[in-house]
Every structure is written in structure tokens, then in C-alpha cells.
Design goal:
The protein is mostly loops and 525 residues long. Helix content is 10%, strand content 12%. The radius of gyration is 64 Å and the shape is rod-shaped.
Length: 525
Amino acid sequence: MNPSRLLCSFSLMYLLVVPGSGLAYELSGEEWEAGQAGFYVNITAQNQPADDTAPQLWNNAFIEAMAKWNTNTVFKIDLTAQTFADPCAADLPPKNGVSFSVNVCGLAWNEGVIAITLTETIIDGSKNYITKGGIIFNDGFLWNVYDGPWAEAPFLNIGEFRRVAVHELGHIVGLGHPVGDPDVIMRANQDVGDTIVDLQADDIAGVVAIYDTDADSIGRFEDNCPVVANTDQLDTDIDSLGDACDPDDDGDTVADGSDNCPLVVNTNQANTDGDGLGDACDPDDDGDTVADGSDNCPLVVNADQANLDGDGLGDVCDPDDDGDTVADGSDNCPLVVNTGQANTDGDAMGDACDPDDDNDGVLDGADAFPLDANESADTDSDGVGNNGDNCPLVANSDQADGDSDGVGDVCDAGADTDGDGDEDATDNCPLVPNSDQANLDGDALGDACDPDDDNDSVPDSSDAFPLDASESMDTDGDGIGDNSDNCKLVDNSDQLDSDGNGIGNACEEDDGFTILLPVIKKALE
């Protein structure tokens, strides 16, 4: 069996026991201020077997080793560039490099040492911050990349490059060799048959101790609460201090312990319903059991959600409940639309909502004249109020009062409506003066108001002889009625008839024959 191979680091060693874990990890006392490091990787080997024809083998293996730390811990080791940086060079700015070498920066390898980590640090207070790291692999030792037991067949006496790279990167991170050499990747020795190739719980716990103080899987350099576990990194006020450790989560200058909305900005701490939950975060600000999103007056109690004008704003907080463009404070009917603000009686209530518009003591519903304070009843329904009606019990919308005695004709006993000296009861024309009471045809109507005075069935307005029952027409307009005219169609007011045959001379020739031409001519006219 080959002697064990020693993995070496210049890091300081500190022991820290994880309570109850049964594992221990050693801290070097050094750490990266930013919790990350980048490496220049372009590895070549001079003394490896000639049949190793894959120069990229070392680069890939080293990059895989970096990924194991990136995947399992909060520390990040990144590939800066696929170029060479000498771990021993005093370059500025410092470059983290990795290489094979037959010596250690000009010094001989100690016996049994197969790899070494070099670090440069600065002291800042109580911290040793790593500013540069380098890893050198002993080029005098045979290497390859393989899985399985260390240095056994088919890799007798050949070191496994990748797991050693993982170990040395652990020193770069800030870990030392665990006391008692437990089964972890950071153990000080590699013996033939060893099978540990990946980070173990103890290795990961060491990184947590350095870079993840609160063990919430977020490195303390990225952690907005590095000493309080808060995996969600919630930072309500975006002040770079997580809510888990921020005394004022919402950044409103009111400490969380006194803030009635610790996660919502509300410096004024308004709390309408006094329920201990500020309006800014209270789902029901006024406490009327109607959620603010559905409440038409979210800051005024109105469980009934009354909204007279349907404008989305409840009556209790609507400045114009009826939506008539007149503000409630100035509206004489705040709950009834009345843009005109009509107010007949000049009281505090507009007509639209006043039960007694004219203020006459009679409610509008029973008032026949709701806008007239002088009238309220119309017993005879003639449109004239009782107080002004000259016949309040008998309909007489015209209020006729022929004798001007203040009593309407329709109810005036012994009245003489037309004032002709004849009382209506005996007057054959009570509405037309006719003191002579003339009545040609002897019917009930005097001539003054009779539409057919001679009662010949021809209205006076069409009767050429309205007072002669025997005549009603005068076709030729000669003043002689047709019934008596010996020439009906020819004007002959003298009615001359020389031959006494009943046909006037005006329409007859001397030989006794009727002259037709004048008749025809008259007819045509």
C-alpha cells in the first residue's frame, strides 16, 4: 500500500464543533470579504504520462471542482477566464491562479505533499480577508481524473486530480483540515482506497459558519438579514434590510411594534374603525362588515350600502345624494332630484320634497291647488277654487255673472243673465238681451237667439228670408223669393208679366215663347 499523501495549506487552523452533529470542521481564520472568488484556469502538466493526450482534462476537472462548491454552498468560485495566472506571481491587481509545478514558488516540495494552497491576506479589524489565492499541484506526482477508490487499480500510484482540486478549493474558501480527520473532503490525508470525492455535511457546515451566519442558505454578503434566517429575503421597503431584521419593514418611520400596518406605508397611522389595523392595510376600513373593495363608502359606516342616485358613491359619503348637480348642503331636497330648487312657500324644503308646497296647512296630496296658498278645495271640480268660485257647488268654469252680483249665473236665483230686464226663468233668450221677447215662430227661443226664426228648417244664416216661412232662397238676387219669383233665374224685381201667363217678361218673347238664351246665360253665370 502506498504511503498516504499529504494535502497542504498555508491557512491558519481553528477548531469549531457543530453541537449535536458529531462532525467538526476547521476554519483557517481567513475569508473573502465579498464571499466569492474567481480563478484564471489554463492548466498544463509537464511530467504527466505521455499517453495523457487531453490537455483540457485538467481544466475541465478543476472547473467541475469549483462547481461542487458553487452548487452546495453559498460561496461562489467562478471562472474568471480560460487563461493562465501564476499562483506565485506578485501581480497587481492580484490574480487567482492554478498550475502544475515541480516546486513551490522556487522551494522544494515537502515529502508527501501533493498539492498546496497559497493565500495572501489583509487584516481589517478582527478579520483576515483573503485578497489572492493560488493552488499548485505537484508535477512530480502522477495524476489523472477518475472516480472510485484513491490510487487503486487501474490507477495504482496515481492521484485523482479532481477531488484534490475540491479539497484545495476548500482552503481557498477558508477551511482548514478537520481535527480527528473525519470522513470529509477536507481531511488532511488521502490514503489508498479512500472514496470520498464530494463535499460532505461537515464541509458545507464550515462554509455556513463563515459566510452564512444565520444558516438560511444565503451568503452573508448577499443576505439582507445576515444574522436572522430569512430564506425569502423579503424586503418590503427595499432598503436592503430584510423584514426579518428591519425594525421598520415598510419604511414609514413608524417602528413595526407600534405600526398598525407594519408592511404598508402609513405614517399617519389612520385607523377609521379603531380596530388596531390601519386603513392602509385594513380590508374593511370603516368596520361595517362590507369589504373596502365592495364598499361604496369605505371610510364611513354604511352596512346597507344605500346609494340613491346609483353613482357608485353611497349616500352617507356622497356630496350630492340625488345626483341633481346641487350639493346636499345647498340642496333644499337632498334626496329628491330638483335641479331648479323650486320652493313655492319659501321654507327650508323644495317643492319636490315638501309635503305642503304652498304652506296652507293642507298637504299636497289632499290640496286641489298645492301651489296656491289661497285655495285648497274645488267642490264642483270646475277648476276654480272654492274661495274664488262664484258658484262653488255648481260647476261653472266660465264664472259668468250676468248681473254682477257676485253669484254665478248657474246658481243665481231670479237671475237676469243678459240684463235685458227679463229674468232668466221667463226670458226666451236668457243669454242674449231681447227685452221685446220677439218670437216669430212661437217656439221656446226668441228671435234674438233662435237659429231659425221662421221655423222653415233653414237656419237663419243660410235663409235669404229668415223671417218668412214661405221663402228661403232668391236665386237671381232680385229680392223676390224663388217660390214667388216669375223669373227665378233672371233679375226682375218688377215681376212684369204682360201676357199674364205667370212667366215674367224678362224671361219670355213677345210671341209667347220662352226666351231660353237669357235663362241659359243666367244659369251659366
